[in-house]
Amino acid sequence: MGLHSVFGMLLCTHLANAVPRKAHEVQASGATDARNGCASPHALRRVAALDIGTARVRLPPMAGALAFRCASCGAFNRMTLLVPGREAVCGRCKAALDTSGQPTPILPGQFDAAVANAPVPLLVDFWAPWCGPCRAMAPALEALGRTMAGRIVVGKLNVDDAPEIAGRLRIQGVPTVALFRGGNEVERLVGARGLEELRRFVESATLSVGLA
Ligand SMILES: [Zn+2]
Q1: d(C-alpha 1, C-alpha 125), whole Å
Q2: What pLDDT, on the 0 to 100 scale, is given for residue 83?
Q3: I need a labelling partner for 164 at 20 to 30 A (CA). Which of 52, 107, 125, 136 fits?
């Protein structure tokens, strides 16, 4: 059983705490592949970060600085001012820098650096192309990114391309959004949510690390 089907199953097991993570455990549990559960919003609930950092550290205020992630090279660019009508350029690769705040894809090889280096809270959407709720949530996530452009960075990690990362972070279903700050996961939210709930989640999670 590959990761793909494991994720499909996980969506259909109501994201229980005791969800087995290894293929042989999945089979032993008697669970069957039921990716159709992917379309059901009922199993969605909020869970705390598992064993990833739950740091409650006070971080210095951002002093109004904005940060944008370059979609081309993944570098974070800090800016104190956006000049209307002037195109922003990535300081590292010189590509045009998207300052709209819309989510940018995070490639598996970029993930650890993105978490470690993000100068503002990094919200990662762990998603998969076959996941209906992931697609359903995409517009809300994009709206959130645009609303909070520069104050948070929203990235998307395709778990099908990143089984090692999904396993390491114990992503047990998609969509899962996790907020990272200072290299640590602060909090995560499992299941598709609307804009308002995503916004409250981000505000609450950033408050918990003394950012807001
Ligand atoms: Zn760049």
Answers
A1: 24
A2: 74
A3: 136
Query: 31: CA distance to ligand 1 center in Å?
Result: 44
Any idea which fold 41-208 has?
Answer: Glutaredoxin (3.40.30)
Buried b / exposed e across 136-165, counting CB within 10 Å, b at 16+? Answer: ebbebbbbbbeebbbbbbbbbbbbbebbeb
Q: How far is the CA of 85 from the centre of ligand 1 (A)?
A: 20
Which sequence spans correspond to the domains of the chain?
41-208
- Give catalytic residue positions: 131, 134
* Global pTM exceeds 0.90: no
CA of 117 to the centre of ligand 1 (A): 14
pLDDT tens per residue, range 45-94? 333 333 333 333 333 444 568 999 999 999 999 988 777 778 899 999 99
Ligand 1: distance of its center to the CA of 157 in Å? Answer: 18
Residues 100-127: tens digit of each pLDDT = 999 999 999 999 999 999 999 999 999 9
Q: Of 4-8, 27-31, 36-40, 205-209, which range is least confident?
A: 27-31
